[in-house]
Amino acid sequence: MPVPKQRHTKSRRNRGRSHQALKKQGFLVCAKCGAPVLPHRLCSNCGTYGGREVIDVMAKLTKKEQKKKTKELAEQEKGQTGDKDLSMEGLSKK
Question: Which of 20, 43, 45, 48 has the largest CB neighbor count within 10 A?
Answer without folding.
Answer: 43
